[in-house]
Structures are given as C-alpha cells and as structure tokens.
Design a protein that fits this description.
Length: 294
Amino acid sequence: MMRLKNTLGACTFLFGTLVLLPAAGRSDFNHHVAHMKAAITTTQNAQDESSERVRVAAGEYQILEGANVGEIGSYAPGVYNFRESWTLWRLANGSFDVEGEREYESPKDELHSNRFSVHLSPDFRTLGVKEFRKLRWRPDSGPLSCEFQPAEMICTSSAKDPSQSVDLNVPMKDAYGFLWPISAFSLSNITRRAAKIHDKLTPVQLVTVEEPSPRNPVFVSTLDGNVKYLTQQEITLAGKKWRADKFELKVPLHPAFIIWTSTVGLLLRFAPESKSMQAAEGLQLVHFQQDVNF
C-alpha cells in the first residue's frame, strides 16, 4: 500500500508540473516522464520478482567412504564419490524449490556431473524432479523430468526429435520415491506419509530406473515395501544438533535401511541397518547452512 501511495503521489506531482509548463517545454518533460515510468515499472518488477521466492537453506549430501553404493541402489556399474549440493528456496505459495548439482563417478574415474531440481509441497512432499542430463542411449534427450502424481508417476525424457523422446506413465500407490538413481529429496518423500506411531507399518513403493540398451533405453521397476517409525532421537550432523525422526525401511532384495529425517522432512541420513551405528557410513548430510526457518 505504501508503494502504491508513493507512486500515485509521484504521478500527481508530475501532472501538476506538466500543467504549469509552457507548450515548448512539454515535449522534453514528456520524455522525462516516460523514463520515470519505465524506472518505476522496472523497480516494481524487481520487487515482485524478489518476493516470489526466498532462499531458506543450502547443503550437501555425500556417500561417505566405506559405504557400498550397491547396497543402496543398483549393483552395476557402480557409483563412486557421490555428492549432491543444493539450495532450498521457499516460494510465495509456501511450496519449495530445490536447485542443485549431482556429481559421481560411474564406473570408477568416469566423472558425471549434472544439475537437478526438485519441487516440494509446503509439507515437504515431493511433487516433481528434474535432471538436466541425457539418457545414455538417447543423445537427443534431456532434461529428464518426473511428476509425482497421487496414483502415477509421469516421466518424459524430452527430445528435439519427438520420435526419440521416452515417455512413461507408471501406476503407483501409497508413498513412493527413487531408490535408484540416488535422490536424497526423493528418499525422504517416503517418510512423509508414515504415521509417527512406534512400530506402525506404512506401505511404500521404491522405484528403480535403469538404461539397459539402445532397444530398451529405459527400464523401470518398482518394489513394494514398508516404512516403520522407530523413535525420535537427537543426532549431530553437518555441525548441527537435530531432533530427528528415525524410520526403518524394508524392501525385497535389499538389506533393511534406517532413515533419519528432520522434523520438517529433510533427509539427514540413509544407511543399511547393519551399518547404521557407524557414523561414517551411508548417505549423509555433511554440510548445512540455514538462512531462515522452514
């Protein structure tokens, strides 16, 4: 309201000045007014744009030395030196955007680096993910994006040549997220619907995406499992003490996992149950900086 009053006051002053000017000076004055209007519009647009989102935090995940990535997701060709740095933004409607970069070696000494983004609801449920990379067997593809709908996951590879695009509609139920490729914000999504009642089981689905061959560029499989709420405990990670919710995840063909999240749903740690007591094992939050509460 104050900005509107100031703008109206400026326009009133300009109009009154224009009436008092002789005709010969009005042309230059009109030119000056046009510049002022452009400046006001630019300032207002900048203010509106800056109010669209606010940076709330930044951090980094790593799979620490000693962890076997095969235990977390795919068994081949292997992933080494995995790290995921990110920035979290809160939008005007209360939802969140994550923007980050994921780096890893697969196979050993073959570096992969690509940007990614995640869209989260106000209660930290995953609504969509996007990776700015190409499919292995579709050089024309990218970015790769998936929408997390209540009853299905809709994915597209995009492509300049539509015939090279890969589109998937995968029926889903319950809470779900990616087990492979590794995605920290997707993993935390499966805990958001888990009832925080000791030992209560919540059905979940874990999605694995692989790229087998040119004839079969994308293969998606799902595993039905359960998340069980264990307890709430205090842990120290990334130089900060957290009041963490602790869950157990069980899916076929994999060992049981332990998941720790913050009370708002940020993934803190994900590790095989057999190694959950070892601090230097599994996927962990290793750096964290909070700008505002969320």
